[in-house]
Write a sequence for this structure.
């Protein structure tokens, strides 16, 4: 709520409007704080899993495209 109050003003004319650059800086600081928290929370195993997730090996599909319940279209 404080963020919205600062952004939109709380209706008090004595409150000076916040500079958009200052809001961007606050938001960047908050994002960095969250990233640091996530890094500290994750243990070594979780970090390795995230780092190498795109390189994981998956076994090839077995049996090909044809399935047992497919109709036989090839003449015998």
């Amino acid at each position: 709520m404080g963020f919205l109050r600062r952004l939109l003003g709380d209706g008090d004319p004595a409150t000076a409007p916040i500079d958009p650059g200052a809001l961007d800086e606050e938001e960047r600081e908050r994002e960095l704080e969250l990233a640091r928290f996530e890094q500290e929370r994750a243990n070594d195993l979780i970090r390795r899993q995230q780092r190498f997730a795109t390189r994981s090996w998956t076994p090839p599909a077995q049996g090909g495209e044809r399935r047992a319940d497919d109709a036989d279209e090839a003449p015998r």
About this structure: The chain is about 50% helix and 0% strand.
